[in-house]
Every structure is written in structure tokens, then in C-alpha cells.
Fold each of these.
Amino acid sequence: MSNNSQLPKPGFPEEGIYQVYALCFGRLAARRVHDNFMRRDMHDGPMPMDFYVWILRNMHRTVLVDTGFGHRASDERRIAIDFDPIEGLERLGIDVDGIQDVILTHLHFDHAGNLGRFAKARFHVQDSEVAFATGRFMCEAQVRFPFDVEDVVALVRHTYAERVIFHDGDAQPLPGISLHAVPGHSQGLQAVRVMTARGPVLLASDASHFYANVLKRAPFSLTVDAMMTLRSYDKLMALAASVDHLIPGHDPKVRELYPSYDFGGIQVSALHERPAPHDIDWLKGLKALS
């Protein structure tokens, strides 16, 4: 815990080493096991889901990974949030208008809202994700459900304003930050690998919603292509130095594993710090059961 009202200033002079924080801005407490897996041949029970954005910081830049969603989408989809994630960033002392780079792991509503609230940012996204979100597959209600048309239109407007950087597969857009195509949940999903003082941290985003998805090779219920998802699991494990360097996209376990700090009433989890050893043993046990 901390008595400070803002995130501490980054202490890494190296351009390619970052502090990485997970900011949880909402939760789906009523979610159950059978909601989170394609296969339902397991005991049902509570399995809540968190909503995150991720903050990458050093002395040279602040990079945001995903932008969450705000009150409009919360009201329309009847998903309560604890606070608006952009307001949360501001309460942490982050100048949102000063952010130069935003990485969008994919364009689902809970990852790509609020795009009009960044004055200068360039948005990094995969070619295939934009093609998917604006193409013929969006004629199908079941496929377009996790997308928000206002968010997609906002990204198109940013494209016309020359503020979108398209990537075709793996890329390294900034020192110490690399992007990795891991399709399956969505057509153009990308994971983000970030160098920290403890080694690389892999933000899997929705390539694995929970640790159990990748460790038990059990795809999430909303999956465009199950075989692509399974191949992406292989890629995630190859990119992560170990399970304690892999960060799933929605797992509340992240907040238990990693040291948490309160800054002005906003709690963040420090992913650049080492997780609790006994909890890592639990994760390794989960992998052994797969």
C-alpha cells in the first residue's frame, strides 16, 4: 500500500525497461465457470472476471495497453464499472493527453473504448483486426456482439487523421516493447511483451482470459477459431519466460499474485515486481493438472 496520491516517478533510465501496472476498473462478480470455457465438462461454480487496462512507464514515455470502456458502454451493456478507466489514469497523475502511444490488443468493446479521449496518441493495431471489425463478418450478430460500432468508427476516424499504426504480425514498435499476433479469440488479437527489471512480462490480453485457459488448453467460450487459439497458447508459452511472466486478460488472480498499491483511492498491481511464491506454486499445480 502507499500513502501517495499518484504513481511514483519511474526510476529506470534505460529506454527499453518499464514499470508495468495492471489497473482493474471493473468486475463481473456473477460470472461462473461454465461462462468462461468453450467446453462445459467441468464442475460449475463462481469464476468472476476483472476488466483491466495496463500502464507501461519509464523515464522516457508512458504507453497504455487497451483503453477499457466508459459509462456509455457500461449502461448499454448493463455491466457496472467501479470507475471510468480514463478518469482512473488521471487520478494516478497520468497526463492522458500527453500519451503518445496506445496499443490496442483487439477491438472488443471492453478493450477499445474511450478512443476519442486521447489528444495526441497513435493507436497500434493489427491489420487483420481492423479488417475483421469492418468487414463482412460484422453482418453476423453473434460475431459482432463483442464489438461496439462507435469504437470501431472512432478508430476509422483516427485512421483518416493518420493516427493509427497498422501492424501485420509480430512487430517491435518501441524500445523494449514487442507485439505478437495471437489470433483465435478475435481475428487480429495481439499480445504485448514488455521488458522489465525482472525480465519480460507478457500481457496476453484475451489470448487467455484466465490462467486456466492457457494452462489447461481450454479456450474461452467466445472464440472465433478454436484451433488458432490453441496454436496461440503454444506461442504464449514460448514467449513467456515462465508462468510467472504471463499475464492473462481478465483473471482476478493477477491482483492476488502481484503486489498491489493504492494511489489516491485507485489500486494498481505492479507486474514488474515478483509475484508471491506460494501463489506461483498454485499456478504451476494448475498447469500440472492440464
Note: The chain has one domain: 19-288.
Amino acid sequence: MSGIASNAQTNAIHKALHVCPIFRGLSQSDLTLVISFTVLKQIDKGQYLFRAGDPCHGFYVVQSGAISLHRVHAGGKEQMIHMVRSGESFAEGSLTMDKGYPADARAVVPTTALLVQKSGFVELLRKKPELSLRMLAAMSNHLRDLVQQIEDLTLGDVETRLINWLLKRCPDVTCQKPVDIDIKVAKRVLASELGTIAETLSRTLAKFRQEGLLQVNGRIIRVLNPRALDTILRCRLGE
């Protein structure tokens, strides 16, 4: 299901765009203009927003849910590039590409995404050149995240990568009180994000539960003591 935002949806779309770094600080009138060429898309789990090479119709902001950006190699193996979650934008760089979108984008859970249409946004860029700087900043952040992901995947083993992933989502790694982390996606998707398979992730989670480091309830992982987990990570990394 998709369509131009209705009056009932405008407030929710306004909120989603307002927190997106590209549009943060934009005047109310300009934000209203953006909403006028924004298309709301409801994507079922497993449905594709686009595939690599598809013509670019604009870029997206995830309102709720999660989108897997990935490439499929010649042998059929899928390689995840990035998991886009609520509040994040993606595919901005495709606005200037003649070859279309460079990767596949698939919903890993039921997702609501906002398509900021190319024609309207490019026209706004001509009127508001400062938006170009925000676009560059957003793309720079995506590149930084990609580099960080590559670095994370070079960490020694799945256990170390999982600890690192969890600690990045703890507000304070020096805290000794439990922290709940909603992974928001199926464990097999998280496994792919960590560069492993679901069975290995399940064994790792079971081991950490037995060691008293975590509790797992569905998609909620409770880190019982972030400070202790951070100490373990530092020891593993030789710090």
C-alpha cells in the first residue's frame, strides 16, 4: 500500500522528517513543501522497496521498521551492506546516479517508509542550496557507518562482534544496571548483520545466558551489567 500522505498522516510524517538530520532545522513552510512531494509506503516483511539498477525515484526515510540494504553476488550469496532502522534515511546518493539504485532494499519486518520524491527534492535543492550540505553530511555519515561496519566485522569472532554490537546500543557502558535492547528484527537478520548464521548466533546467546551476561526474551536482549560486558570486550581486544 502506498500513496500521497493524507491529512491524518501528516503529523506522523512531519515528525519523522523533522528528526531526520537532512531536514533538521528546516523552516515549517519548507518542511510542509517536502511533505507535499513525500509518498508514504507500507512495506510487508520480505517486500522490496527497490532492487539494484532500478531507476531512482528519490530517497527514503524509515518511519518505523527496518530495511536491509544488500547486494547479491553472482553465486547467489547475499551480502548485507547496512540495516536501516527507524529515523534513518538512505539512498540519497542515488539522486545523482544515472545507473539507478546501487543495492537491493528489502523490509525485514513490516515497515513504513517515506519516499522523498526526486523531482520535488531536486527543485527544492535549487532554492535551498544549504540542503546540499546536509545531503553531503548524511552521505558522509553513511560512509562512516559502512567503514565502522567493516571494522566491526574484522573483530576476531562472533562472540566479540556480538558484545561490541550490544555495547554500542547501551546508553552508558559504565552502568552496572540492566539495559534492555530491542533488536527489532529476527535473530537470523541480526546474525547476517554480524556476519554469521542464525545457528551460531543462537549458540552464542545461549553461552552468554549461561555465563550470566544476558537474558533473552524474544527480540529483547537484556544486558545484565554493561560495565562487565565492556570489561570483557576490552580484554578480548587487548586493551
Note: The two ends are 50 Å apart (CA to CA).
Amino acid sequence: MKAKLIIFVHGIGDADKDFHLEWEKVVAKNNDLEGITVKGFLWEDSLQKAADMYDFGSGPLGDILKMCGFPQLAKWSGNDDWKVIKDYMMDVLIYVGLQEMWLKIQNECALELDKLRRDEDGNEQFKKTETILVGHSLGAAMLPHLVWREYAFSGSIPYHGMILLASPLGFLTPNKNISQDFLQRMGEIYGGERSNVLARFARAWNKKGPGRLKFISNENDIICSDVKFPIPGTDTLVDPIPIRQGFDPAETYILNKEHPGCMETIAFGKCDLRQIAANHDVLAYLKHATFTSALATMLE
């Protein structure tokens, strides 16, 4: 079997430089990682440096946060879980909302990914291995951008496979004058409008073989799904973020048509506003049989 390298990419939150060790420990319980190199892609610093330059809680971007229902979410959840989602949305606006910041973060991340595919002396040792990218949350939206940049420049994808957990790639911006969305950014790189971007992106992975691209979304995860929650004290079901987080049925169809089976919805956790963080937890995704099967296919 050809040597393999797995690169884990975190999402929002305070990840540290060794975050991937916990991920690897969980994954190793269900997959044979003997002889496989595992590395962590830490990009929080790039995102935080951009965030520190702007006040995203007020002004036009603050209005978008209100538009996305965060005051109601805070009231309904009854705890601090809503802050996780607010921080996430602010990170999204930082990442896709400002052209200068987006390019800066992209360039820094591209350099970091290249570095991870080299050995400690900077030699291209790991570029000769089959690299599998595993991203969670915002990291699972940033990774497609990096891959798409490489594809646009070279005409090929230099990775063996990619698994995107809880990806908000389908996020639809409520105000394109202030914040673009992830697929708009990909269209700027190479591809055009949303459906065309998705078709070309999924189809590009066919050159690597079947089962090389996998989106895995928890239907109870507010980050990647338009889930409706029961509002405490009422019989009403409400999507507390009134913008689209996930792909619509037509976009899901395009993805699965162009790269069969690449989009899969799973279910874990409770449909409860107090379980927002738990329903988005990366370790829960990594423990799920769908992830184990997707990774096993790529490790063959």
C-alpha cells in the first residue's frame, strides 16, 4: 500500500497546536492507522488576526448578525450555546466578507498546507504520498477553496481524497453587498455561479477515482443543516437562523450526480436548542460509521 498522510483541519474555536492528537486517537479506534502519518492544520491564528482588526458586532455586519436571529437564539437556548454559533457566524463574515482579508487568509493557509506536505527539513517527502484532507466546520469550507485554487492553476487535484464534516459550503449570504458566500468565492476562482461551481468541483474529483470526495452533515447540526428546533414553551418548530446554511435539494442532487455518493446526511444528537454545540462536535462526527467508512475507502 502506498504511504498515506492524513491532514486534519479544525473549525471554529480555540484549537491548539496538538488538537489533531485527540482526533487521531478517536479515528484510530475504528481505522487502522499503522504506518500512516497524521498532522494537524492549525489556522486559527490567521483567522484571529483578521478578526482583531474589525468590530464585527456592530455596524452593517452587526446588522447581519441580528438578521440571522442571534438575539432570539440567545433567548431560546437558555444557555451559552448560542455564543458558539455567534462566534461561528462572525468567523464566516470575517473569512468571506472582506476581499483583502479573504485573500490574506487564503494565502497563509496555502503556505501552511504546503508546509505540512513537507518533512521537517522542508523536503517534499510527503508530496509523494497520498494525502487525505479531513476538515470540520469552517475548516471544511476553507479547504475546498484551497483545493479549487490548486485545480484552477494546475488542472489537477494533488490530493487522494477529502472528507468535509459539517461543512457550511452551502451557506447563502443574506446581503451580497456586505458578505459574499463560500461558493461565490469559488466562482471567482474558477467556475461561475453556484450550481456550475458545485458540478465542476464534484466532477474534478472523478479524476482521482470513486469515493474521493465526501460531505457528511448531521441533520441536527445548525451549522450545516437548516434544522428546525422546537421552541421551549410552545409547539412551534423554528429554524432559528433564517438564512440557508446547507445545500438545497437541487445542489445536493448535482453533487451526487457528478461524484456519486459524495453527499451524505447522518443523524446524531437531540433536536434541542440546548444541544447546539454537542450536535456540531467534531468527535461525534469522527466516531460515526459514515466517516469511518469514507476514510476506510480512501485508505485502501
Note: The two ends are 8 Å apart (CA to CA).
